[in-house]
Request: fold
Amino acid sequence: MKKICFILLLCIIVFLNENLISQGGWVIQTTPVTDDIYAIQFVNLYTGYAAGENGRIVKSTNGGITWFSIGSGLTSQFLSVIRFFDANTGYVSGNWSGSVTNNFFKTTNGGLNWTLIGSLSPDRMQFIDLNLGWGIVNQSLGKTTSGGVQWSFSTFDPVCPNCSMNDIYFHNENTGYTSGDYWNSAQNMGYMFLFKTTNAGGNWNQKFVYQSNVNPYAPQLGHMFFPDNQMQIGYALGSFEIYAGLYKTTNGGENWSLKKQFPIQANYQWFTSADTGWVTSTQGRVMFTSDGGSNFFTYTNGINSELNRIFFLNDSVGWIACNDGIILARNAGINGIHPVSFNYPSEFILFQNYPNPFNPVTNFGFRIADFGMVKLTIYDALGKEIASVVNEELQPGSYNVDWDASNYPSGVYFYKLQSGDFVESKKMVLIK
Reply:
């Protein structure tokens, strides 16, 4: 009997662990497109943009709960990178290898309109401000001081002749890194390189090289990321022979070592701290480490799509752009509810919003006395429901939640809190 109970307990533990591994805290957010999505960025907890195939750009103003299409006038066939400086101003770009089509666009009104910039389009880019940036253009490393109107290009001869550059990472206007590779047919040898500059790209110094003659698996060094402000700890994804690998530096890119081999494909990465990071892969899989890359857990997410770029707004809130029009979200799209205290309140309370009047974001405070379904709803002056801020079960406690009214006109609005038999409404004023 004890043996049967032990086996049953073991099965329950395995089931719970499998369920944990199959979720990993990521939830599916649907978009109005079915095209592959390659790039994603949020500028705050509410406003975010994603871009991909066939010039598709989608936008969310509620953390990804809902997405809508913008930029219908774009004719690009491929958008692989996105960079927004605030909720209204940003760039999208991308091209296939060797493409001469210009797909570099700028918006200053939140994506309602897009302007074609210059004559080249990077498929990797990093901008320090609206004018100063670097990008990979037709597999070459370019720099612009004019917001993409004009580009100047770096060469890496004789160390890496005919290098195909893959990624660029700048932390400030002077210090940056770029990765590349090339195949030497005469030697039947492939090389992957990493270079560093400390003078804004005036000079590039080789910091890493790997070579392999296992054809056709030519080595490639791709996506890079530095999670600390001092840029001492950094990571770079590479592929070599039949493996993918994670390389790591702990001294500002002076030396690199192979930290982890992956048995599956590794696409992009994001580290929220020196030790905690995520790596995207295929078939809905994302890999997670909490010990600086020594060990990874692989999570599946109920989809079979390729996972592309990953973006974290802070240590806990992130999104992943996926093929087939899918976006994965972690701790996002839950209306930004922030528990203040889990001490049991003696009664339900809805506080006056602050600030009031407001433009465009205001905060609601409320207390929940019993566990149950909680709804916080916004109504216009005519009593029409226009937004659902909270609609979920909450534990007893005190909570704060923001509401962004950027898409609504000035006027009088009402908000109502409902939980069980408790119902209370208050008035607020939006002034733009």
Notes: The helical segments are 2-23. The chain has two domains: 28-330, 338-430.
